[in-house]
Batch of 3 targets.
Target 1
Amino acid sequence: MAVQTIPARIRWAVDFMEVQPNDHVLEIGCGSGHAADLICRRLEGKGKMFAIDRSEAGVDRTRQRCAAHVEAGRLTVRQIDLATLRVPVKRLTKVFAFNVNLFWVRDCKNEVALLHERVLPGGSVNLFFDATRPDQVQEILTNASRALTDGGFRVYIATSDKPPVVGIIGRR
């Protein structure tokens, strides 16, 4: 696979989360594997990551890009929908998603309940979205914030102009 530059928006979001060496991270919608690679580089010792995607192509790309992390036992990648996920790590410290429409385009009460059950007190759900379409940003903020708040999370907003990213952060 050709070496690709990690998109600035992904780098910003992962930096924002301040992943710690012993974190247990769930990524929803792993797609290209860029975020999984960055996150796994920060995991040492007992840190683990579980990455999921509904797309077989996304799972394949992540496995290929992150083969060393999978081999080292830091990363598990599965093709599955969040609604049917039974997280093997019962003690998540962070959940990460970038441009996952589920959280703002439809009812995701069950998925948010699953996350609330699995995230440790003090842990966070970090939902990031590309903010290059300003006409959608307010709807994304409103709907995703409501979903997390209704699910028992304390919510705050994080933004970046360069790169243009908006984050809805839910703390447990």
Target 2
Amino acid sequence: MFNHTHPYKPFNIENATKLIVGTLPPPRFTTGALKLGDVNFSYGSIDGQLWPILNAIFDANLVFETTQQAITQRRSLLIKNNIGICDIVAAAKREKIDASDIGMQDVTLRKLIEVLEAHPKVDTLLFTGGNSKNGPEYFFRRLLKENDLKLEVISDVVPRIHSFQLPISTRLIYTVSLTAPSGAANRAVGSLQAYKEMKAAFPNKNTIDFRIDQYRPYFTQQKSDWLPNRS
């Protein structure tokens, strides 16, 4: 059984207003056996799509290589835009050594509720996936249940938006369940009506373009700009 531990501490949560919340990077980031082109930082897999998406959104000219420059660029982008990273899984066991969420067993979660209580600037969690088993929203719902809390629906259209109130500070936190930035999620993307409408209007656009358009407001705008009007 492989002990898959998270190799990175939460980043920039002291000054962030938004936290990116995922699960675990691929096992090679735990063992240090990186691929050529991997960046030794959160979401640094050369096969992943989060940094290409953010690169396009922020016009950041990121390099995609296994260098300190690549790490520094990503850290600077997050700090400049008040974005932090705090993945919800601290460790898990695996029988098969791969990056699938569904293959995680005996999962240990980070104490994300306590993290939020300790960092009052954070008001939004950006989940890199929805409520499918072992996804970030799935595990967050488990944490909430353990604390006698629950998510309230704000919008049930993908990307789904919820809110909840912290138990001590009673601060209201919003969550956005983004379409996962992975190749494995492309089939699900293709079934979305919004994706079909985009392809009909812009045949040359692809699944990454779809995610760029989906992610942009939540990474660049204030809550008041993307929260639906509930009046």
Target 3
Amino acid sequence: MLQRDKCTVSTKYWHKLDDGRVQCELCPRFCKLREGQRGLCFVRANLDGEIVLTTYGRSSGFAVDPIEKKPLNHFLPGTSVLSFGTAGCNLACKFCQNWDISKSREIDTLADEASPESIATAAVELGCRSVAYTYNDPVIFHEYAIDVARACREKGIKSVAVTAGYVTEEPRKEFYQYMDAANVDLKAFNEDFYFKLTGGHLQPVLDTLKYIEHETDVWLEVTTLLIPGHNDSDKEIDELTQWVASELGPDVPLHFSAFHPDYKMMDLPPTPVETLVRAREIAIRNGLRYAYTGNVHNREGDSTYCHNCGELLIGRDWYQLTDWNLDEHGACKFCGTPCAGVFEAKPGDWGAKRMAVRLADFRR
């Protein structure tokens, strides 16, 4: 039975319906809940006639990752990021690669308690330049994510949202006031895919992408997981990349990631490397300056090149930086053309390692 505890907080994006239910208005699902019911996301529920977040201060775990793993290739390259998420998700992707976390309906998944202040403190003491809200979608733990981002900002730590972008207008405006970078999953470029394989819709995601790029100062990168036979045709990739180039602009990096069989789509093969290479070529042909392959070993597809002279700017082997040819202003050392992104005079040296963290060591 749903009860209030220290992890339950009130929220503001909801209203009461005439039939006694309460409608959550955080995301375009608009879940209509009776007393005690949880939304599809699992973490938001109707308790005492209001929508509450039931997992404030509870995480499914923490780890220090390379920022390139988010993936962000143009935001403080080489630095480490403290990553965390919670249980639940507001989409129902049949191909979810983190389903054990995002599809969890067990409070036991929320193994690590952490206040916003302890997360910010841990990031500083671990030498991380940023904190990432990831593993599941930070949209559903909106209040917790914002409080963590506020605490981080006070200590000079950046905030990174790894999200599917499935959120309504007003929460979106509030949320991105506190983010410094975002990687948004554009899961496909057709409504049928979104409806049948994610339980959502395409247009709200497109709206989020345009909002981030044109109405905020948040650094944006986009990822599309290419699934054999579902969203990997030349036609769809051509339409998707033309939309990104025209509606977001040529400087927004686009990552094409390889699918591996998981969750409810175990009957499909992994994405061939050749599919990702072809997608990258289509993106570049359509005017995108920075297109990448992901989840496969492909040094050319991992690396960043100057769009003016073609020279290698940032070499990558998986998540390991191998070359750095940007000057102290983030411009090409060979021709002086600026590279779009958030860079410092020198790259970080975290490398490809991943380190699990217990926040109990950083509580104050």
